[in-house]
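Re: that backbone. Tokens:
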């Protein structure tokens, strides 16, 4: 099963530095999770609001999906832009920029999320070891984004299906050899051999009669 992905959404038009970064988690599949409404505001585990969804596909890619009737969304990468079509998942990379309403957001992808949490602002001046790690991750995302800017934006007809784990009492799968063996169909079942006849017991000679006195 794919794991939740930790991302940061950078508001490129933020009025204050403290409002620039928002730490978020994208959940696997289309369960209620991270969304952007029609104005580009970030929502968490709320009903659809006419914007788009951010989630993780079965092959562990960050997906942006504009549902039918959703507000217009544009993804920009390396000077090229794509108007996101309705109902088709778009694979996002670190450094991609989203235009939704009047908002302009840059996506930073940090990998597997250590925990699932609601969106929270990132301090302008990171403190301590955790803050330095986040700052380093942002710098790494920016560097990777520069190398990914030449990649075209991938649009999918549908995302990979997320496999459902088998139930504990599920029967094990057939071995490969058994799976390739054709099912044998016969006109009639094999005839059962007749059991051997039991030989008669051997004849016995009666003992001689004793003479009468």
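Recovered sequence:
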């Amino acid at each position: 099963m794919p794991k939740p992905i930790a991302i940061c959404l950078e508001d490129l038009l933020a009025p204050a530095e403290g409002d620039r970064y928002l730490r978020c988690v994208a959940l696997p599949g289309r369960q209620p999770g991270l969304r952007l409404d029609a104005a580009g505001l970030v929502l968490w585990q709320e009903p659809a609001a006419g914007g788009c969804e951010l989630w993780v596909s079965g092959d562990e890619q960050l997906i942006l999906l504009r549902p039918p009737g959703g507000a217009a969304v544009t993804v920009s990468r390396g000077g090229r832009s794509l108007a996101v079509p309705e109902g088709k998942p778009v694979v996002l990379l670190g450094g991609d920029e989203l235009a939704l309403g009047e908002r302009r957001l840059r996506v930073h992808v940090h990998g597997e999320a250590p925990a699932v949490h609601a969106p929270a602002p990132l301090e302008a001046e990171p403190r301590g070891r955790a803050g330095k790690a986040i700052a380093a991750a942002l710098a790494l995302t920016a560097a990777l984004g520069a190398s990914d800017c030449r990649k075209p934006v991938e649009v999918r007809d549908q995302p990979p299906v997320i496999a459902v784990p088998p139930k504990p009492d599920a029967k094990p799968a057939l071995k490969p050899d058994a799976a390739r063996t054709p099912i044998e169909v016969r006109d009639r079942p094999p005839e059962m051999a007749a059991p051997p006849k039991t030989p008669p017991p051997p004849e016995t000679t009666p003992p001689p009669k004793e003479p009468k006195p």
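The helical segments are 128-148, 176-180. The radius of gyration is 35 Å.
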